[in-house]
Structures are given as C-alpha cells and as structure tokens.
Amino acid sequence: MEPLFKQLQELRRHAEALVKIEVCSELKEEPLGPGDHSIENLQKGSCSHCGAVPWLETARRNAGRWEDRPLVVLSLFDGIGGVWASLCNLGIPFIGYSCEIYPQAIEVTKRRYGSVSHLGDVRKLKRTDIKETVVDLVVGGFPCQDLSCLGRRDGLHGTRSRLFFEMLRVMQVFSPTWFLAENVTSMSWVDRDEITRHLGITPLEIDSVCLTPCRRQRIYWSNIPYPRTCPRVKESEGTSIQSVLDPKVEVALATKNTCVLTKNITEIGRHSMEQVFNLQENKIRYLDVTEVELMMGYPPQYTNLDFEGYAAKSRTRLKTRCRLLGNTFSVPVISYLLSPLLNRIIRERTRCYYLPKSIRQQDCAIMASGEIWAMYNCEQRPNWYAKIVSRSGGRFDVSECHWEPGMKRGLRRPLHIEVIFLQLTKPYELGEPDLWNTIRGTGLFVLTDKVDAQSTWVAFSHRVTTVVEHDHNCYFIYPGKAEVWSIYDCGTEARYLVYVAESTVDKEKAVKGAPGKEGFSARCRLLQRKTQPDLYTLLDKEVVYDDLGVFSFRAPYHFLNERDTLKIELATKDRERGAKGDGPSRKRSRESDTSDYEELLDTELEDTGGDSDI
C-alpha cells in the first residue's frame, strides 16, 4: 500500500477534480489500511470499508457525468465538514457555505475544504451573506443536548436544541430547493412530531451500522426523495471493523462497533469501544481515534491537526479529536441520503415543503388551542378524539421557568393539558358494539360539554389533520393522503394496515351526518408485516375503499432505512418516551359510568433509545 503522502501528491495532479480540497501538510506519512481511505478516494467515492464501491459507484455510473452547475450548499452546525465529504463521495460539485462556532471544527474544515466560506454563528446569518441568488441545499444537524436520552430532556424548546428554529428561519430567508435535517432517534415522540409538523415531511430513521462498521442511530427529515432501497451491505466484510485493520497484523474481536460518542473514544471511556487483538504482540487494545475516523467515512488523520494553542498538548488534542468525531455526521449515511440528487429527473422535479406561518420559537409549540388530537382508548386504539382547550407547564414554559421556594433552578411547572372530548353522532354510532371503545375512527363527531385534564403525553397519539369543521362543534374526520390506517373486516373480525395513497370526500355532504353518502373514496396500498412486529413493507398492490366505516384508527409512522419500509406505532408503548417533567398518566374518565377498567398505562418505561453526544 502506498504511503499517504504519495496519494496526496497524486490528488494534487488530478486535474479532473470537481471540488478543490486543500490537504493538510501535517498528515503523517503512514501507510493506509486495506480499505484505502485516502482523500483522493474520498473524492472519487471509492471508500471500500463503507461499501461505497458497489453502491456509490453504481449510483454515479447510472447517473452519468454531472453536467449541471455546482450546487450552492449551506451547512448549518457544520462541524468538521461531513456534508462536504459526502458531496465529494458522490462527485457533486458545490459552492459551500458553513455556519459553525466551535474553533477546532472550523479549523479542520478550513484545512480540508479550503474553498468553503465560513459565516460563523447561525443566529447572525443574513441573506446578504451569500451572494448567489439561489441556495440549492440547506443541511443541518441541530444540537441534540435537550433531546437525547443522555441529555437534559428539556425538549425541542430547551436552551440548545431550540436552535432548530434558527434553521427554520434560515430556510424561510433563503428558500432552498432542498433541505436535510438530522437529530437523534432517542428524542421523545412529542419532539419528533413537532419537528415533523414544522417541516411538513415524514422522517426517515437509519442506523449507520447498515452502511458502516459503527452504530449511530439518527432520524432525518428531507424533501429529497428517500432512496427506495438501502444498500444490502450491513453484513459485508467492507462494513465490518476488520475493514479498517491490517488483517495480517490485527484481528477485530467484534464485527461492529458501538455508537461513537465524545466520551467513549477517550482514554477514560475507551472500554466502550470494541477490542482488537494484535497477532504479533499477542496483546489486546481498543479501537483508536484514527480507526474511528475510518469507520465514520473520513480519511485517516482527518482531524489530526496542531490546533491553535494545543501544539504541545497531545492529550488535549486527542480529546479535541474525539469531541469532533462524536459530534459529526456518518459520511456514508449522508452520501446515501443525498444520492438521489445524482438523478437529473429528481433535481428537476422539486418536492415542495411548507414552513409554519411564524417560525418564532415561542409561536411553534405543539398542541395549540383548538387543535383536534387522537388519544388511545381502553383497547389501545387511538380513536378517541379531543379538542385542545389550553396547555401549560412542561415544554410550554418556554419564555421563563416558574420558580418557587425549594425548587431546583430551571425546573418547569408540571405539564397540564385541558381537553374537550368528541363523540360520534347518533347515525354513526349505529352498529357499534361498545360506544365507549368504538371500532370505527371516522365519521361525524360532536363536541361534548365535559372538560378533562391530562398531565402526561402518553395518552396522546397524533394531531388530526384531515378534518372538516362545521358550526364550531361538529368535526368530520376521514383518512388523508400519506396516512397509515387500520382496516377492520367485520366478517372475519380481523384488522390489517393500509397506506392511503389518495383520498377524496365531498365536504358539503360530509357534514350532513349521513353515513355512506359522504362522497368518500380512498386508494390505498397494502402493508406487509415483517418479522419485527412494528416494521412493515409498502407493497405495490392497491385497494380502493368507498366505505368510510372500515377505517378503525390512524397509526403514526416514520420510514426506516428506505422509503418502502415503515416503522409503525400501534400502542402506547411507543408514547412512553415523554418529555422531561411529565407526571403520571391521566385517562379519560367515564361520565355516569363507575365501572373499573384497565389503566391505559401502568408504568413508565426507561428510555433506551439511540445514543447522542452531550
């Protein structure tokens, strides 16, 4: 294997390079591992350890030579430039702008991608800072400290994660053609639902272990079409730990590594990394920071700089490198998500997105007064419906915290949500064996006069978006496009799931309260359950429904790894990752019914979601 400095010399002579990459002259002259992770190969998209040769090269070959102008790309919370490495992997030329405030991260990006312009703090970004009239792509992995299971769990409106609303502001100012947002999967469903609402895009969850040697569960929102099929390279040798080692000298004692965090690749936390056995010395060691770079899709020594002020402090420099890697993207995953842009037809057929009318953080809280929300009934079906009257405490204390003597500083008031329940109108109740836990979840509903209070998120499922309001107290609820619904077959008493591809209803007829005469029709695709109970494959087989009564309840979902695999939430176990400060669950109380019934939720489960650096 040629030394690294020779490959860098070849890179400088590579006249066909699409993007200028400035190479740090301080990289050590050491041989590369069998994966050959030179900066030249990163530019050419042939980083073999992450499986790039089979799937990235195929994508680039199928797309043909890039003949359009370079993309104008704005990377928010840019870190060490994972976006630029991903674009180079794909061979997409770009004019880059970076927003980052961490000095060492800025230094790495400047040394590796000298053509990228640095704009500093995202909160100070203005339209005049970018001279181009069109911004093609905005990418942002906004801070996760208030969202992660390892953090404070203050939610999206916490002091650090609220920078998400700065991303909304930037998107409003620059109106990019495409966007890509990223964060941790361990956030509560409340935060995920709120982000989804503001961006108007169903997210996709992916663990980098599918494409690389290390685990990194993240969730993404993008109006770039999600790839239909994720490369099947998870079990290949090119995505194992061994791919970053010399097999003649060392053997990995595990096939995959845990999630890379700041704290588990330093000397203190190195026991969290996997072990390597040296065949020549008969000794065990842990994976080091350079091997972590390789596993995450960067060239070796990518972060090994003499950071300003750290020249004589090698230990401090190591901790800095660990921190940088713990907060960066997985390059192969970002390459995978951006790969559809190689297709000119996709680039020319933009998918629209709609931002909130107000992007101020104070105006963007979830559960606004007057919204209709679905709640879980006693049978774990989310077809109780309630209108939000008011909410306070918890995440809604966004402007200032409510302090009392003896309270810890910054502690928020308990969550309190007041709702008024809806019930089916008489014509739609006919045929229901249990009016308390109805089978159908569609039809004409009317407001009751009973106000109830909830002190937890757990009983809530989702915001109802396909609803026709009539006279301020009647609501017609029906299945909407891109929703997943449970279908009830009264003949077999069986249920199955469908994805609504398209639906129509005559709104004037719908509010008249005549079942079967609403002018309803829905074209749906069947869903096939996988071995894992909450995973379903979206089939091409379609069924048309004209009977509104077969739709039992809507199930929240997001995509997993690819756009034809859905992860569907069918019970309150998926609601139990509440925001910090949630109290015990409160249920809907039966009016004039004193019989006991099973609690909707008995216990709070410990959050064991994906990892995040704090």
UniProtKB/TrEMBL annotation:
Keywords: Methyltransferase, S-adenosyl-L-methionine, Transferase. SUPFAM superfamilies: S-adenosyl-L-methionine-dependent methyltransferases. Its EC number is 2.1.1.37. Residues 572-614 are annotated as: Disordered. The keyword Methyltransferase applies. Gene3D superfamilies: Vaccinia Virus protein VP39. Residues 572-593 have a biased composition (Basic and acidic residues). Signal peptide: none annotated. It comes from the Eukaryota. It is an enzyme of class 2 (transferase). Pfam families: DNA_methylase. The active site is at C144. Residues 594-614 have a biased composition (Acidic residues). InterPro entries: C5-Methyltransferase (IPR050390), C5_DNA_meth_AS (IPR018117), C5_MeTfrase (IPR001525), SAM-dependent_MTases_sf (IPR029063). GO terms for molecular function: DNA (cytosine-5-)-methyltransferase activity. GO terms for biological process: methylation. Belongs to the class I-like SAM-binding methyltransferase superfamily. C5-methyltransferase family. This is DNA (cytosine-5-)-methyltransferase.
